[in-house]
Design goal:
This protein is of the alpha/beta class and 750 residues long. It is built from 18 helices and 29 strands. It is elongated and about 90 Å long. The termini are far apart.
């Protein structure tokens, strides 16, 4: 049906009995208007609600809202009983509506009603019946449910293909959270940022609630909160493990999707943002009337004091308002056309995210919203970096991904943002959205080619070892351009999205039945091997093999050049019972089970992981700041990187293309580029790592001079208990037996 025909159909419904529902919805609420409060002119900057002293020193709050194209804006103030008072913002400066309201103090709850045309066919969706969250709100009080009243259109209109064009005039204020005025008076003078160099970083991806919810050492009233993550018991685990940064799954205020609420589920991961300045209120133990801001800051301080940086996983590519049939919570009602990418048919949204909408980042006001938010979290909340969800969507110009896009250009020149850690998830779901290796200098990237290669190698599914060689040595094929370094590659085997490490070796098929979507959600490309049995088993042989595979995977990750990322709980043998899309599992499936540490087998896995991270911290040859040259630097022919077959001979071109399950990687500590802080040459031990993914043992000849005279075993993943470095030495040229499916790390001792 064409737009004109659809408009005519809607008009016909209003004129006939089919329009009675709209009349009932839109005509029976004509209560007395709420009282009004006068406002002084105030200022158009900064945006948001800022408590300050006004004229003559009068305390109050300045409110400023960008609402391009709107015909009027009302500020709505709510007391503790929910009673509403309204303030007409009469001042308009460069499309910013603003006013100063005397006597409005921190803790005040508020929202906006924005007036304008209702014309969905041109993308105009103003509806003053809907209370809107301030995009710049520093705190949010309340949770988002999605009753019919919070939709700008009549959600249950009989003909759904035109439902989004029928305006719903019911008041949404009783059903939506409110922004909270917050007083920012923290100068962070007592905070010391760790400022860990990229090459020295080890990232630990965790969920604030999931990491702390079941931790026995955290007081029950603090579990699942920012205060819980700041507790010494939580930080002790991170310090023992040795990670340098936590990457927090989204902590911006987010909402739950309607389809989940209908199934009595909730959005657990939080990739459904609605407030880009507000810490998610449900993770606060201290209260939601602004206290969540201070609690988050105290968490950051506690982590910094332990030498741990805080990186936020941020979702600026879309919001919780979904598509044309989604709710009206904030941006959609402020200026739908100004904030979102629309199709040629302006009723419809351009969706490069798979979530119904895409923020229109080339618009100045949208770019300002994002960069203001980023700077706020750095300067006022103390965070150290960001991982950008579906970053390719942010890098799109009008349609195509563009590495000269306004978003990337602004980040590159911003004096605050260009100094923090920037991690791209380098893809989106649109055409041309896969951009691994394409982001410019300053950026690091989640390297899914590393993930795929390592998974395939250890399930013995690679046709040859070329891909594995690139991934182990820093992915120079992807990142050796434009001055980028090996740490541009964030190496990971698992992430929040997909199997846990234990499930990767226990399941070959996803088991997402608990999500209520008929097991259709989640990827089918798991590249997993269950070691001979699907799911949990009592077969001790299978269980032992799985534990060995876990040791192999973790050892490979932590010996690879680049920045390793672990997922919380993988070092404990955490399982999601085969669920590879636990985004809606706010329960034991999604939470860490700390009782695993009482099992000697999982204690040993934690000990190995911690030992490998410590080894990485001690040896700069394992965390290089420049790519390997592969060329001899001295007369004896020793190179910084060399590859060996099981025969002890260097790999030839033919060897790289031949099927193989065994690969030897030699790392020279004599040829590390760069100098230390005192200008001295960096020298380190040299190592030989032998990776064998075959199902049976293989004889491996240890390379002789000039590579080594003797070797000492440092790590042997065939052993359940590693303990200290085994005092086993081998002479160069010796033939050793590599056990089936194992990694051997040897240090050159002469």
């Amino acid at each position: 049906m064409s737009s004109a025909a659809e408009q005519e159909a809607v008009a016909g419904h209003r004129a006939t009995g089919n329009g009675r529902q709209a009349a009932a919805v839109n005509g029976a609420r004509r209560a007395a208007p709420p009282p009004t409060v006068p406002a002084w002119p105030g200022a158009p900057t900064p945006l948001g609600a800022r408590f300050r002293a006004g004229p003559d020193g009068v305390a109050g709050t300045n409110f400023a809202l960008w609402a391009g194209g709107a015909e009027g804006v009302e500020l709505c103030l709510f007391d503790d009983t929910g009673k509403e008072s309204r303030v007409r913002l009469a001042e308009l400066t460069h499309e910013i509506w603003h006013g100063f309201v005397p006597g409005v103090l921190p803790g005040q709850r508020y929202g906006y009603r924005v007036h304008g045309r209702w014309d969905p066919w041109t993308g105009a969706r103003w509806n003053p019946a809907k209370l809107l969250l301030d995009p710049y709100a520093r705190a949010v009080d309340g949770d988002f449910g999605l009753p019919p009243e919070v939709y700008g259109h009549v959600r249950d209109w009989p003909q759904q293909h035109v439902a989004d064009t029928v305006r719903d005039d019911r008041d949404s204020a009783p059903y939506v959270p409110k922004g909270v005025v917050v007083h920012d008076d923290d100068d962070w003078a007592d905070d010391r940022r760790p400022k860990t160099p990229w090459a020295d970083s080890v990232i630990y991806e965790l969920h604030v609630k999931g990491f702390t919810r079941l931790h026995p050492g955290i007081p029950e009233e603090l579990r699942g909160t920012y205060a819980g993550l700041a507790h010494p018991a939580a930080i002790e685990h991170l310090v023992k493990l040795g990670v340098t940064a936590v990457e927090l799954l989204p902590v911006h205020q987010f909402a739950h999707e309607d389809h989940l609420l209908r199934r009595s589920l909730r959005n657990y991961w939080g990739y459904n943002s609605i407030g880009y300045f507000a810490p998610h209120a449900a993770y606060a133990a201290s209260g939601t009337a602004g206290q969540q801001v201070g609690e988050f800051k105290r968490m950051v301080r506690a982590l910094h004091a332990a030498g741990i940086e805080v990186i936020l996983d941020v979702v600026y590519n879309h919001t919780a308002e979904a598509g044309e049939l989604g709710p009206t919570l904030s941006l959609k009602g402020i200026d739908n056309r100004g904030y979102y990418r629309l199709q040629d048919d302006a009723r419809r949204y351009a969706d490069y995210t798979g979530c119904g909408n895409t923020l229109h980042v080339v618009q100045p006001q949208v770019l300002r919203l994002i960069t203001d938010s980023l700077r706020y979290w750095v300067t006022e909340m103390g965070v150290d970096g960001f991982r950008f969800d579906l970053a390719a969507a942010l890098a799109r110009s009008m349609h195509d991904v563009d590495m000269l896009s306004p978003f990337l250009a602004v980040i590159a020149q911003d004096p605050v943002l260009r100094r923090v850690k920037l991690i791209a998830e380098p893809w989106d779901v649109g055409s041309g959205g896969y951009q691994v290796g394409a982001f410019p200098p300053l950026w690091t990237e989640w390297n899914d080619r590393y993930r795929n290669a390592v998974r395939d190698f250890w399930r013995h599914a690679l046709p040859d070892v070329r891909e594995m060689g690139y991934r182990l040595s820093g992915s120079s094929d992807l990142y050796a351009w434009g001055g980028r370094r090996p740490y541009a590659s964030v190496n990971f085997i698992t992430a929040h999205d997909g199997f846990t490490l234990r499930d990767l070796v226990s399941y070959e098929r996803k088991h997402n039945e608990a999500n209520g979507e008929g097991n259709r959600d989640g990827t089918d490309d798991n590249r997993a091997w269950n070691c001979g049995a699907e799911g949990e088993t009592d077969d001790e042989g299978v269980r032992a093999l799985r534990r060995r595979q876990l040791r192999n995977l973790l050892t490979t990750l932590l010996l690879s050049t680049g920045v390793p990322m672990l997922v919380a709980g993988d070092e404990l043998g955490r399982t999601q019972r085969g669920n590879n899309n636990a985004y809606c599992q706010d329960n034991e499936i999604g939470w860490l089970d700390w009782e695993l540490l009482e099992d000697p087998g999982w204690q040993a896995l934690f000990a190995l992981t911690s030992r490998l991270i410590a080894l990485r911290h001690r040896h700069p040859v394992l965390r290089r700041r420049a790519f390997f040259s592969g060329r001899a630097q001295t007369a004896d022919g020793l190179r910084d990187l060399a590859w060996f077959t099981s025969r002890g001979t260097e790999m030839t071109e033919q060897d790289w293309y031949a099927p193989a399950a065994t690969l030897g990687m030699y790392l020279s500590g004599r040829d590390i580029p760069g100098r230390d802080e005192r200008g001295e040459q960096i020298l380190d031990d040299s190592f030989l790592a032998v990776l064998h993914a075959g199902e049976g043992p293989v004889d491996f000849v240890l390379p002789g001079p000039p590579w080594a005279e003797r070797y000492e075993v440092v790590v042997d993943t065939s052993l359940e208990e590693q303990g200290e470095a085994p005092a086993v030495e081998h002479r160069a040229g010796a033939e050793i037996t590599m056990p089936a499916r194992a990694v051997l790390l040897l240090r050159v001792t002469g």
